[in-house]
Specification:
Shape: flat
Mean pLDDT: 82
Number of strands: 2
Distance between the termini: 31 Å
Number of helices: 2
Strand order of the largest sheet: 1-2
Strand content: 5-15%
Length: 54
């Protein structure tokens, strides 16, 4: 069984998520409501996983 350590709430901090949009990088926190919804629906992948899929 895997054991995952978690920090107490007072020691945690938000993680800024950036993504590439139209050729440049932007933080998701600056997206408008529609773009945030679109970002949540995206399918994420890694190149290695795609290369191994027949």
């Amino acid at each position: 069984m895997n054991h995952i350590d978690t920090l107490p709430t007072e020691q945690r901090q938000r993680c800024e998520v950036w993504t590439r949009v139209m050729g440049y990088h932007r933080p998701v926190s600056q997206f408008n409501v529609g773009k945030r919804a679109e970002h949540r629906e995206r399918r994420h992948f890694t190149e290695r996983d795609v290369a191994l899929t027949p």
